[in-house]
Amino acid sequence: MTEMIETTGVRDLQRQLCDLQAQVDDIRTSSLPEDKLSMVVFSGDLDRLLAAFIIATGAAAMFEEVVMFFTFWATPALRDPAKRPRGKDIISRMFGWMLPTGSRQLKLGRMHMGGLGTGMMKGLMRKKNVFSLEQLIGQAAESGVKIYVCEMSMGLMGFSKDEMIDYPGLALAGVGKFLGEAASSKTTLFV
Predict the structure, then answer these.
(1) Which residues contact 48 (CB under 8 A, 6 or more apart)?
(2) φ and ψ at residue 131, rounded to 5 degrees
(3) CA angle, 148 as apex, 40 and 179 as ends, to 5°?
(4) Which of 45-82 are b and which e, b meaning 16 or more Cβ less than 10 Å from the residue's Cβ?
(5) Which of 17, 73, 92, 158 is the most exposed place for a label (fewest CB within 10 A)?
(6) What are the pLDDT digits (tens) for 151-173?
(7) pTM of the prediction?
(8) Sheet with 34-41: strands ordered across
(9) Residues 6+ apart with CB under 8 A from 79
């Protein structure tokens, strides 16, 4: 009789220990950030976008997931110059004329000097075999870097998804989507 009580007591302890272990495992998995880098890309300057894509493509080798959220002045860098959407109002057309149409029209943030500085930088990059922004965007696509474009910025500037570059999985998203991505990321950057 005593032996049976002891066996039941050991089983109860083992069951309680298993329950506790399961609870500890749940706490660990729910509170740890995912192996992910999230980045806000705000600037439309060539040098900052180069840095953003260099970081993103490098991070793709380190993290399981890399997410870029393009907003405001970075958004025109993703416009495809070959695409000409119709039906825009006058304000949208004006934004279209004033802002760069794609990555090739971007300028350096400093030392643009009427195009001389930007041209010199692009020439140096070719000479030293540094990837261009267009090549980095292609590498990011191959590496599975996700790109979200701010819906609000697109709406303000009168852009549509139809005029964006062909990038695998490029999607429009609101700030809530990015905040959700950032909240579960190990690292978050603002460029």
Answers:
(1) 41, 109, 191
(2) -55, 140
(3) 55
(4) bbbbbbbbbbbbbebbeebebbbbbbbbbbbbbbbeee
(5) 17
(6) 999 999 999 999 999 999 899 99
(7) 0.81
(8) 171-173, 146-150, 65-70, 34-41, 185-190
(9) 99, 100, 101, 102, 159, 163, 164, 165
CB burial of 108-132 (b: ≥16 within 10 Å; e: otherwise) equals: beeebeeeebbeebbeeeeeeeeeb
**Number of neighbours of residue 149 by Cβ within 10 angstroms:** 22
Is a pLDDT exceeding 70 seen at residue 5? no
What pLDDT digit, counting tens, does each position of 98-153 carry?
999 999 999 999 988 999 999 999 999 999 999 999 999 999 999 999 999 999 99
The three-class DSSP label of residue 35 is: strand
Q: Does the pLDDT of residue 1 top 80, yes or no?
A: no
Could you tell me the two tokens for 12? 């109860």
| pLDDT band at 92; cut points 50, 70, 90 | confident
CA distance 119 to 191: 22
Distance, CA of 66 to CA of 28 (rounded, Å): 22
What tokens were used for 21?
Answer: 């272990």
